Each structure stands twice: as C-alpha cells, then as structure tokens.
Amino acid sequence: MTGAAVIETVLGLKRRARRMARALATIHPDAHCELNHGTALELAVATILSAQCTDQRVNEITPKLFLRYPTAADYASADRAELEELIRPTGFFRNKADALIRLGDTLVRRYGAEVPGRLEDLVSLPGVGRKTANVILGNAFGVPGITVDTHFSRLVQRWRWSTETDPVKIEHAVGALIERPEWTMLSHRVIFHGRRVCHARTPACGACTLATDCPSYGLGPTEFEAAVKLLKGPRAEELAQLARPAQPTRPARGAQPAQPARRARPVQPAQPSGQAPR
Ligand code: SF4
Q: What global pTM score does this model have?
C-alpha cells in the first residue's frame, strides 16, 4: 500500500461499501446459494448438514435424503440408524441426525409441519441458529437477510466495513451500510469472493477487481501473474480477465506515458451507526 492513511468518514465508508457491493455484482453474476434445495424444508435440512462440512459434500447426499424424507413428519418419525447412515458423509452425523429428528418433530407440533418464515420462529427450531435462519429467509422466503459465515466475517473485516467480530454485530453493521433489498445477494457474492479470490491464507490481491477500494490490498501477492494462479472456481479465467491490469500502450511520440493504475490509500475506518437490519 502507498500513501498516508486517511480517516474515512461514515459517509465515505458507506459510499465505498456500496461501490464494492456493485463491483461484486459484476464480478460474481453467478453467485447463488450453493446448497441444492427445492423447498424451505430441504434448505433447512441442507444448512444443518453443512455445519463443519462442504456444500459440495452435502449436495452429494441430499438427493437420496430428500427422496427418503420429503416432509417434516418423515424426519420426526425417522429411524435414527437409517438416517445416520444416510448423512454419515457430512460428519457429526449423530448430532445432525438428532437435530433433524427434533426439527421435524418441532415443525409438526408447532408449525403445522411447515417451515416458518419469521426470524424469531426459525431461531427457535432445533439446529437452526441466526446464520441458518437468514439463509432460509433469504433463499426460501425472499426476505432479505445477511448471512455471516467465516468468509463473510473475514472479508468485511479486511474491507474495514466493520471492526466487530461477533456475527450479529457484523450483520447489523453491514445492514447499516448496504441497502436492505441487496442483503441476500450481497451475502452470496461476498461468500463467492471469499471462496474464489480473497482466500483466508493467501488472497489473490494482484488479480482482485476490488483492489482499488480494499484497505487490505497487499495481504496476498500483488503481481498479476502470481495472483492469478490463486483464483479458484469454474470462472477463474473470467475473474482474471476482469482484474487484468490495462496493458500500457506505446505512447505517441512526444506524448506523456500512461500512468500505472492507482491503488487506494489505506483508510482508518469510522464506526458506522449500529442500526439493526430488522
Ligand atoms: S485486494 Fe486482496 S485483501 Fe482485498 S478483497 Fe481483494 S484479495 Fe481480498
């Protein structure tokens, strides 16, 4: 990073955050919930199974699971041994089987065997925390929700959108910066960026389209050729093209040579107001 640190106002932070959110929409037009599901119940089940497990592994076992247990009542009356065997590849299968059986039972007893569409009801369900509830609200009910997982926490801290470490406080801080209708898609896009570009150990800074607005630019390699090798996912080549620095053109005789792209100066964040998302 170059230049002296500058104090960023709350308004400046909001503008920068929204600029980055718009850039994320361009960078990751394919962002979506990576847990395959058709109904709110399937999404709730898949999200419970995704704890300490990759979405890919969950997606491998859910087709058979959803066929065997299509309703909440099916989970409530499931044979524990059979259910455990089906979900074993996702790890912690005994705890997860217990959560699924209790989830089915609670839905049948308290919610007419349907997954409720309110945050306060969802978080009262076995195995459903605030993160899972926001995933369900945003993707099954169209209610805007911010999903704070490990990728989301890491990236918003790197971007200095928030200095909080508590997921609920992060959710509120980001909710105060970004327009409510954008919350669900923003969550997907930030998570996509965390999985494909801004990795936990070595982020691909030199091949990151957000570099000019990112105060943490330089955490990873800044040379394009080195950084591009760190990009992941099926659109790695497109991501590289989007971030490819403009090639200097040969200046006309007597003309001023092109200036290299300017990187953002590091910013000292101001604290956004802690307005609650809902
Ligand atoms: S510039 Fe580096 S730290 Fe910043 S978002 Fe991009 S990859 Fe992450």
A: 0.84
